[in-house]
Amino acid sequence: LAALERQVFDFLGYQWAPILANFLHIIIVILGLFGTIQYRPRYIVVYAIWTAVWVTWNIFIICFYLEVGGLSKDSELLTFNISRHQSWWSENGPGCVRKEASMSGIKGLDNHSYISVIGCALEYRYIEVMHSSFQILIALVGFVYACYVVSVFTEEEDSFDFIGGFDPFPLYHVNEKPTNLLFKQTYLLLFPTGFSGMKEMSK
């Protein structure tokens, strides 16, 4: 649900890189849930590996909005340089008031408007940082849970393989015929005529 909520706001802000990352994350989460329900440890391992990638991506988003390491929140990196859109929260955050001023008086900027945002209770980059931090927290919990489920499934498979392995008698066995019954059957096959057949063979 948290990924879907984030996907909606990234769509509203035309943030194409986060949209793609969120889409992959939702697919992997569904795959992990399917693996848990259908007893498929490999799918859960894929989810566990993806959580490491997801944590790395969210750390990058945090660094991007906090402008760590030469990154700039005003760059077009998250939109693949297709547009100059920013986060949806930059104009629609809590307490933000969006104002448009006409630029018709400036040559070359006719029919354009300047948008200013004032009164924001919380700057949009901190909202994005909180979103990413929450995603990291959920991913860490999901990683621990995935490792636990895989270990439980592995233990169950091992115990199932060795059920009855050390029992003196097999769980399912074929009833063997008594030795004297087998001897009688062999005797009848060799001497179907009884004692008369044995006398004829002796002659």
TrEMBL record:
PANTHER family this protein is in? Answer: SODIUM_POTASSIUM-TRANSPORTING ATPASE SUBUNIT BETA-1-INTERACTING PROTEIN 4, T-CELL LYMPHOMA BREAKPOINT-ASSOCIATED TARGET 1-RELATED
- Look up the record and report any one GO term of the cellular component aspect: plasma membrane
**What does the similarity note say?**
Belongs to the NKAIN family.
- Its source organism is Sylvia borin
Q: Which UniProt keywords apply?
A: Cell membrane, Membrane, Transmembrane, Transmembrane helix
Location relative to the cell: Cell membrane
Q: Under which name does UniProt file this protein?
A: Sodium/potassium-transporting ATPase subunit beta-1-interacting protein
Pfam families noted in UniProt: NKAIN
Where on the tree of life does the source sit, at the highest rank?
Eukaryota
Task: List residues traversing the bilayer.
Answer: 16-37, 44-68, 134-153
